[in-house]
């Protein structure tokens, strides 16, 4: 009988400690950071008939900005038709926001000899 009571007391003690531990961990939970953090952007210049850098990596929701540093017009045109800047004249800018992760290869429609470049969008 004494052993039985001791067992019950021990069980109650364990339950009380468990509840105390739970409520303690609840109160010390760090708040979740806001999900509205803006991902880092990337800049590409179009110079001497080349996209530089030829590959940039951004997070989904990020924006890539292109600047035409040549005196000739260029375009930033997705090989798969996802985006198209149209004509970007000298010193003009174009930017595009990428919502979906993936690898986007693009080219300039005016100059077929220009090497294609890529935007890698990660989660
Ligand atoms: Cu071009």
Automatic annotation (TrEMBL):
<dbReference type="Pfam" id="PF13473">
    <property type="entry name" value="Cupredoxin_1"/>
</dbReference>
<dbReference type="InterPro" id="IPR028096">
    <property type="entry name" value="EfeO_Cupredoxin"/>
</dbReference>
<dbReference type="InterPro" id="IPR035668">
    <property type="entry name" value="Amicyanin"/>
</dbReference>
<feature type="domain" description="EfeO-type cupredoxin-like">
    <location>
        <begin position="15"/>
        <end position="121"/>
    </location>
</feature>
<dbReference type="InterPro" id="IPR052721">
    <property type="entry name" value="ET_Amicyanin"/>
</dbReference>
<dbReference type="InterPro" id="IPR008972">
    <property type="entry name" value="Cupredoxin"/>
</dbReference>
<feature type="signal peptide">
    <location>
        <begin position="1"/>
        <end position="20"/>
    </location>
</feature>
<keyword id="KW-0732">Signal</keyword>
<protein>
    <submittedName>
        <fullName>Cupredoxin family copper-binding protein</fullName>
    </submittedName>
</protein>
């Amino acid at each position: 009988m004494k052993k039985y009571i001791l067992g019950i007391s021990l069980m109650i003690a364990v339950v009380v400690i468990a509840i105390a531990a739970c409520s303690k961990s609840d109160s010390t939970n760090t708040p979740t950071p806001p999900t509205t953090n803006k991902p880092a952007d990337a800049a590409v210049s179009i110079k001497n008939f080349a996209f530089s850098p030829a590959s940039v990596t951004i997070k989904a929701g990020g924006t890539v900005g292109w600047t035409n540093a040549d005196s000739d017009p260029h375009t930033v045109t997705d090989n798969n038709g996802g985006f198209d800047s149209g004509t970007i004249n000298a010193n003009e800018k174009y930017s595009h926001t990428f919502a979906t992760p993936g690898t986007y290869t693009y080219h300039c429609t005016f100059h077929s000899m220009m090497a294609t470049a890529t935007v890698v969008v990660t989660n």
